[in-house]
Amino acid sequence: MVHYNGVNHLAMATGDMDKTIRFWRDLLGMRLVAGLGQPGYRHYFFQISDNDLIAFFEWPGVKPIKQKDHGTPVSGPYVFDHVSFGVETEEDLWSLKDRLAAANQWVSDVIDHGFIHSIYAFDPNGIAIEFSHNVEGIDVRKNPQMRDTAPTRFAKEGAEPLFEKWPEVKKPASKKEHVVYPGAGSELFHGKK
C-alpha cells in the first residue's frame, strides 16, 4: 500500500509573481523555497509545512479569476473550488484573520463547521483559500463521520479504500525499468539539460 505524507504541492497559476510572493510569503508567512524559470514562465514553490508546498506558474496573460463565495454551486466546466490550509492553534487562526484584515484583504468571520473552525479569503489571483483549525476532541481522520442524509452508493461502502474495485497490478515495473528523466528544473539542481 502507498503511504502518503501530505500534499507535495498544489500547482496554481498567476500573471503577477511579485504580488503572489507578497501575499503568500510576506503576508501569510510561507517561505519561498524554490524558484525555476526562463523567459516566458516561472515556477515558484512556497512551504506550507514540513511536507506540503504550494506552487505557482507565472505565465504572461494570466488574469485573476472572478471571486466567488467558497462552496457556492457552479455549473459548466469547473475544476477547483478552494484550498484549506490547516493551522496548529485557534490563536493562529485569529492571528491570520487579524493580519489579513490589517492588510486590507477581505477575510470572513470565523466559522464553526463542527469539526473545524475556519476563515476564508482570496489571494491576489482570486484563488479562494480557507484556513482551518481542528476542533479539540473531534478528529475525522481517526473517526470518520458520514452525516450526508442521502450518501452516494459508493460512500455507503465506508471510509477505507477498496482496492479490489480496480484491476490488480499483474506485472509491476522492474528495477531496470525505474528510469527517471530530467524535466524542468533538473538543470538547476543537477546540471543536466
Structure description:
With 193 residues, the protein is an alpha/beta fold. The chain has a single domain, classed as 2,3-Dihydroxybiphenyl 1,2-Dioxygenase, domain 1 (Roll). A four-stranded mixed sheet has the order 1-4-3-2, with helices on one face. A four-stranded mixed sheet has the order 5-8-7-6, covered by helices on one side. β7 and β8 form a beta hairpin. It is globular, with a radius of gyration of 20 Å.
Question: What's this model, at a glance?
Answer:
The protein has 193 residues and is α/β, with parallel strands linked by helices. It has three helices and eight strands, in the order E-H-E-E-E-E-H-E-E-E-H. The chain has a single domain (9-155), classed as 2,3-Dihydroxybiphenyl 1,2-Dioxygenase, domain 1 (Roll).
Structural class: alpha/beta
Helix and strand string, N-terminal first? EHEEEEHEEEH
Low-confidence residue ranges = none
The CATH topology corresponds to: 2,3-Dihydroxybiphenyl 1,2-Dioxygenase, domain 1
Q: Would you state the CATH class?
A: Alpha Beta
- State the CATH architecture: Roll
What is the assigned CATH homologous superfamily? 2,3-Dihydroxybiphenyl 1,2-Dioxygenase, domain 1
Return the average pLDDT rounded to an integer: 89
Largest sheet data: 4 strands, mixed
Number of strands: 8
Strand content: 15-25%
User: Radius of gyration, rounded?
Assistant: 20 Å
Total discrete domains: 1
Global shape: globular
Helix content: 10-25%
The number of helices is 3
Strand order of the largest sheet: 1-4-3-2
Beginning-to-end CA distance, first to last residue: 34 Å
